[in-house]
């Protein structure tokens, strides 16, 4: 993947994140989600948050 392709992919995600954050969702960086998953990368749903 070239640098320009990477930037385009990254830039296209920003509006989607803004649409989710505006109504109250909180963005969690990968470092936080990995800790919440206890590094179980096969688990896509964060059960500790989902149960709240």
Structure description:
With 52 residues, this protein is an all-alpha fold. Helix content is 58%, strand content 0%. The mean pLDDT is 79. The chain is built from 3 helices and no strands. The chain has a domain of 29 residues.
Give me some keywords for this one.
mainly alpha; flat; 52 residues; 0% strand; 3 helices
What's a quick, concise take on this entry?
With 52 residues, the chain is mostly helical. The chain has three helices and no strands. The protein is flat, with a radius of gyration of 14 Å.
Radius of gyration: 14 Å
- Could you state the order of secondary-structure elements as H and E? HHH
Low-confidence stretches: none
- Beta-strand percent range: under 5%
Secondary structure tally, helices: 3
Mean pLDDT: 79
Structural class: mainly alpha
Helix content: 55-70%
Q: Please summarize the sheet with the most strands.
A: none
The end-to-end distance, rounded to whole angstroms, is 38 Å
Shape, please?
A: flat
- The strand count comes to 0
Topology, element by element:
Layout lengths: L2 H19 L8 H7 L10 H4 L2
């Amino acid at each position: 993947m070239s640098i320009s392709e990477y930037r385009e992919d990254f830039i296209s995600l920003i509006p989607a994140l803004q649409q989710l954050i505006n109504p109250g969702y909180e963005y969690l960086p990968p470092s936080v989600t990995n800790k919440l998953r206890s590094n179980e990368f096969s688990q896509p749903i964060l059960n500790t948050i989902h149960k709240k």
